[in-house]
Amino acid sequence: MDTVYSNLCVLGGGAWGTALAQTARRAGRSVMMWAREPEVAEAINTRHENTDFLPGVPLDPALRASASLGEALAGAEAVLVVCPAQALRAVLAAAGPVWPQGAPMVLCAKGIEQGSGLLMTEVAAAALPEVAQAVLSGPTFAHEVALGRPTAVTVAATDPDLAERVVATLGTKTFRPYAGTDPVGAEIGGAVKNVLAIACGIVEGLGLGDNARAALLTRGLAEIMRLGRARGADPATLAGLSGLGDLILTATSTQSRNFSLGLALGEGQALATLLDGRRSVAEGVHTARAVGALADRLGVEMPICQVVNALLEGTQDVSAAMDALLSRPLRTEID
Ligand SMILES: NC(=O)C1=CN([C@@H]2O[C@H](COP(=O)(O)OP(=O)(O)OC[C@H]3O[C@@H](n4cnc5c(N)ncnc54)[C@H](O)[C@@H]3O)[C@@H](O)[C@H]2O)C=CC1
Ligand SMILES: O=C(CO)COP(=O)(O)O
To answer: Which of 154, 181, 208 marks a domain boundary?
Structure first.
């Protein structure tokens, strides 16, 4: 068996799809991107820049893009799926008829599907049951990755050979994937940290201080651990790059769209204004609702995520939300 996938397709022309495509080029792979917007594909092909979603980063001129799924997927040996979480089902339904025979997918979106409460691997298994899956997740701001700054991620698949091959395909000196066999753990960390990043932004915007942020991060990790346990995830994955690692990154940096959105909410701006006309995705807004419903269904206590959901839904204001969190009964730390 070949040790790497030489020809890749990246489904998704946003910031992260572009950064991963650039990374794969840096690793020496042939890469074809699918961008939903023809003007994004055009800019990548002619200006070698994703002017809409990752402006200012020069891209490898050999990186090609198309707005046609059939053209983008033709001949791919593996497919990186990098669309927003809520669009995954529709994107895979459209890609199914032209999916390259035998090519596995690497799921790179971070979120939980609203309505179903399904993880990305579960949505993908329902859409394309024959296609093998890996999950790529970790602390990775697209801009830094695209520039080739040092970054480490988790690549998890139930088939260890698949995880190893994806690692070998994408790994470079500065992009360091670590193989794992717990995709569910990698997905839960990556999805829930976006909701917690919004919470940390709110705390920052309210000026509640560094102690409050540390408390929120740590109790937030406890929520990731509880949901992970209920879904059979390995706690070591949740404490690794795709869990704690990504929580630290996203919940402490204004580079994060989720943290920045929370910060603006905490400073008193209205959610509708913040989301109005926005093209880039803040996954935590969508995952908050999905994770709230999932936690209820599984009987898992996730008070921080529930409060973020109530805030975003408009059923609680910021001061009532803080009051709800601070009024919770005192209890043992480890549960
Ligand atoms: N930007 C980042 O630093 C990172 C993003 N991710 C994840 O990658 C996923 C994609 O995010 P970004 O690339 O940042 O997106 P983005 O915010 O840069 O761009 C939005 C993308 O979503 C696409 N899109 C919007 N609505 C769509 C629909 N209905 N159907 C199909 N595509 C649609 C747009 O065409 C565009 O490609 C998200 O799940 C995000 O959490 C993961 C790691 C890092
Ligand atoms: O997933 C990310 C970093 O790992 C990107 O975070 P934001 O979507 O909040 O910008």
So the answer is: 181
ipTM of the prediction greater than 0.90, yes or no: yes
- Could you give the C-alpha distances from 294 to 173, 287, 288, 328, in angstroms and in order? 39, 10, 10, 21
CATH code of the domain in which 83 resides = 3.40.50.720
What is the pTM assigned to this prediction?
Answer: 0.97
- Distance of alpha carbon 308 from alpha carbon 289, whole angstroms: 9
Binding-site residue positions:
12-17, 36, 110, 138, 140, 142, 193, 246, 256-258, 281, 283
The total of structural domains in the chain comes to 2
256 and 271 part of one domain? yes
Tell me the per-residue pLDDT of 8-67, one tens digit each, with 9 for 90 and over.
999 999 999 999 999 999 999 999 999 999 999 999 999 999 999 999 999 999 999 999
Same domain, 50 and 172: yes
**Could you tell me if residue 333 is inside a domain?**
no
Final residue of a structural domain among 158, 181, 204: 181
Q: Is the CB of 139 under 6 A from ligand 2?
A: yes
Domain of residue 277 covers: 184-326
Q: 202 and 265: one domain? A: yes
Cβ of 37 below 6 Å from ligand 1: yes
- 142 φ/ψ sector (left φ>0, alpha ψ -120 to 50, else beta): alpha
Q: How far is the CA of 112 from the centre of ligand 1 (A)?
A: 14
